[in-house]
Every structure is written in structure tokens, then in C-alpha cells.
Design a protein that fits this description.
Elements (H helix, E strand, L loop, with lengths): L8 E6 L7 E6 L5 E7 L7 E5 L7 E7 L8 E6 L4 E8 L3 H4 L2 E5 L5 E7 L2 H9 L7 E6 L2 E9 L5 E6 L6 E2 L29
Antiparallel strand pairs: 1-2, 1-12, 2-3, 3-4, 4-5, 5-6, 6-7, 7-8, 8-9, 9-10, 10-11, 11-12, 11-13
Length: 200
């Protein structure tokens, strides 16, 4: 494994003054730059490239949306050097409109984990009342928390801390799913059998 992906914690910073496209810098716990991500501008389908540094000499990962507009968008993650699919992230459609929920898929398209926002109550406050409350997410694989993401509040900069060291091995409960209603069946009484007089 590339040592860039072996750190227990990362800090992701986004440039807020970039006019077109998007750029993210990923730092390790000591403050060194381990990854630099650039999102290409003026593209209908999102296309994000991760490089070994701001000089962008070596492309490591490529993240691309399968469709231009899709409420249940799927983002595929590729190893740029081998062009091999590593896995995918799929947005959970309508449910993500109120509370962010994503499915983590393996290279075969099978769901192996989830990424979801901390709580429905805070999610609603962020969307409909005020967006100054930082977003927090849990990342689970097989129902076990493997990482957490916390947005640090700063009105002038966007920063997310990604922590793989906390909560490892802890079982977490994913967002509740609506249960189907059970319709009670009415049992009809069996018809009474009338006795038939026997023939003389």
C-alpha cells in the first residue's frame, strides 16, 4: 500500500478563492501535503483527480460520476496508474435530500458500507434554518465504524478532518429505515353447515 493512504488522520482543505473548478489539499497528521485534488471545471459530469502534490506530477486516483444529472449519483474511484476500479460511492437518492446518506460499493458493485450524516435533527437544521452548523459523518464497513469525518467551522475556509483512529471496531446503528406496514387480515367466519335430514 502507498504510505500516503496509511495515516490514521487527515485534514482536507479547500481553496475558497478559486474562481473555476475546485481544489482540495490533503494533509497528514504532521501537516505535510500527501494529496492534492483538482476538480475540472465546465464539465457536465464531475471529474476529480488526486495527485501526489500541488505540482500535479503524478496522478494517483480518479473519481468520476457515471451520469451528468442523477439524484442517486454513483461516483467510481479508479487507480489512475492501472485504470482499475477500486470501488464506488452511491448517493441514496431522496433520503439524502434531508440527511446525507451514501452507500460504499466494492469493485463488483456490492454494498459493503455506508456514509451517513450524524443526525436527522441537525441535518434538518442545517438545510432549512442555518448552514453554520458543521457537518459530521460516520463511515462504516459491515456495520462497524471505521472512520469519522468532522467539518471544522470557519466562515472563510472549508476544512474537514478525517479520522480513522477513533471508533475502530465499534458497532454503530445506521439511520433507521421505514418499516413496511403490516395489514391485518380479517378472518372470515366459516359458514355454518346446515344439517340435512336423512332420507326415510
Amino acid at each position: 500500500m502507498d504510505p500516503r493512504f496509511a495515516h490514521p488522520r487527515y485534514s482536507i482543505h479547500r481553496k475558497v478563492l478559486k474562481l473555476v473548478g475546485g481544489a482540495f489539499t490533503v494533509f497528514d497528521p504532521s501537516g505535510g501535503v500527501v494529496l492534492f485534488a483538482e476538480q475540472k471545471a465546465f464539465k457536465l459530469k464531475e471529474d476529480i483527480r488526486l495527485f501526489d502534490g500541488p505540482a500535479m506530477q503524478r496522478e494517483l486516483l480518479r473519481i468520476g460520476a457515471r451520469r451528468a444529472i442523477d439524484i442517486s449519483a454513483i461516483y467510481d474511484v479508479f487507480d489512475s496508474e492501472t485504470n482499475q476500479l477500486i470501488g464506488s460511492l452511491q448517493r441514496k437518492g431522496v433520503r439524502s435530500m434531508l440527511r446525507d446518506e451514501w452507500a460504499v460499493l466494492d469493485a463488483q458493485g456490492m454494498q459493503v458500507g455506508e456514509v451517513f450524516e450524524d443526525s436527522m435533527a441537525l441535518a434538518l437544521v442545517r438545510r432549512f434554518l442555518v448552514n453554520l452548523i458543521p457537518q459530521n459523518y460516520s463511515v462504516t464497513i459491515g456495520g462497524t465504524e471505521v472512520a469519522e469525518m468532522k467539518q471544522q467551522f470557519n466562515p472563510f475556509a472549508y476544512r474537514i478532518d478525517l479520522d480513522f483512529s477513533k471508533g475502530r471496531g465499534q458497532r454503530v446503528r445506521p439511520p433507521a429505515r421505514p418499516r413496511p406496514r403490516r395489514v391485518a387480515r380479517r378472518h372470515r367466519a366459516a359458514p355454518e353447515l346446515k344439517s340435512v335430514p336423512s332420507a326415510p
